[in-house]
Predict the 3D structure of the following.
Amino acid sequence: MIDLDRLFREYHQPLVRYLARRLGDRDWAEEVAQETFLRAARQESITSERSWLFAVATNLVRDEARKDARRRRHLELLREQARAEEAIEPEPTTLERAQEAALARKAVDTLGERDREALLMREEGLNYTEIASALDLSVASVGTTLARARKRLVEAYESLQREGWPGVGAREDVGARGKGTHAAS
Amino acid sequence: MLHLDEGTIHAWLDGEASPEESESAARHVAECAECRALVTEARGLMAGATRIVSALDAGPAGVVPRTQSGPSPRRRAWYRPIFTPARMSIAATIIVAAGVTLTIRHGNEDTGSAERRMIDSPIARTRGSARVTSAADSISASRGSLASGAPTSSAKKTATTESATRTAPSTPVLTPPPSVTAIAVREQKTLSADKPATLDAPARRIAAAPARQEPALAATRSDSERAKDEMAKVAADSVGRVSNDAVERKRATVTRSANQLSEVVTTNTRGARSPTTIAAIPSCYRMEIDTTVWRGVPTAFALQGQSTALGDAPVRADVAAAGATRGGARPANTAVAFSGPATRAEHSVHAVTPSGRIDSAVVGAWTLSGPDSITVRLVSAALHERATVTLTPVKAIVRLVLSDRTDTVRVARTSCRP
């Protein structure tokens, strides 16, 4: 039988974080994560726990994401929220956070579904084998997928910044800041 | 000369390449300027992508409304009422008191029920039946009945509103004004407050996904395929009454222990549009890293508030700690506090000895990378490089990034003294 306590202890937080980043809604992420663990509880055994959990969670999200009305409503709410935050003067920390999060969300949403999922899983520490297993990819193609996702994400983010996406001022180049951090080998 | 492709470069930098591939890549990069540039670019993209994804964590909760409409017709067969009559009475009273009502007309005897209710609203109605979406639907359905029916010829007209919408004339569907929807959604949430913790509408919707035909089993199957099989086996109404007490308790425990940088805050002068003060940043941290791999990277470090450029002469810890006098000794584990523009200026990082003493030598620099995140760059003398780690309130495990490798490491606050 599955040791649910151990499974939960090890994977709940990264799974919720992955789902929250994927969905843009932490409450929703918690619900999907809970559903995922309920299904895991019914398993006799799971060979590769992390990839199994992320695969089930990803499939649950995809099923929900196929409902167009919900996605449209999600985007509409984000826009309304951004407009509402511009109209009032909340604490700057909240406003800045919301703006950065909204900008990041918009940039992430420009990625293809598979690229986005692979990138978010990698950011949660899944290795290439786990990502390949969770997303039905070959291990050899994960590197290419991540390269493409990272490039497109940074380009989209910088493009949105340059366009002066609502409420966000010009910022330093995200990618360049990263280049400066790491010395060439 | 064959150059490295992007996928190979990213796999190498992610530490996912085989030993032979890594060695080959390292050799090639040392000789090829073009590929060296690609590697540098890839490092920047990886760091940038990590920063962008981390920014998603500041997103809001509850953005997507949990219930916009009642259960679909397909699901009504298995939808079980979970609201008690008492709760429904409260909901009905609140809705009526709000002054927004809807009229539900029953078209035929089969759909009539003892639960029939008349709610008046300022929405235009035409002849024929009207099926009310959203608010009334979800509430009525919970009583096991849904007002719907064939058109009648004696529909009662009420005042109109701007938001009234209609479908085909034979079966007009009236959309309640937004206020009714909002009230109903709030009531749904209120009524759902003490429902079984895991088995609310969203979980049911997930479970009610159309059952998939179970695929033929192959000799070897990926986790993704097995996960899909698992989902296909779950019937619409089988999700539910499994006890989730253990799950809930563990979740609370994990959440509490994860907060490490919980006191990073930026405050502002009343009315100011940008943060002006950084306060209460826990100063000392210890990382669990493999020192044979991360040679020379400090395993414990202390954040300081004195501005300095990286590489300057050692700087004394001359920072006024919260509650301490300026220039005085700083108590163990004291938060760093200083005032001034909350810019992205760099501040020095000092090593912490195994005994918890803050060393005078500067081993890196930190900067405020977000309202509640700090990026720390640590110099490794042995590797002649800087390792970067970003600290936030919610991450106990962070990514430690070097030029040619990354690792996930655990970071925790630690006690220290000057």
Summary: Residues 3 and 387 of chain B are 27 Å apart (CA to CA). Chain B touches chain A through 94 residues (CB under 8 Å).
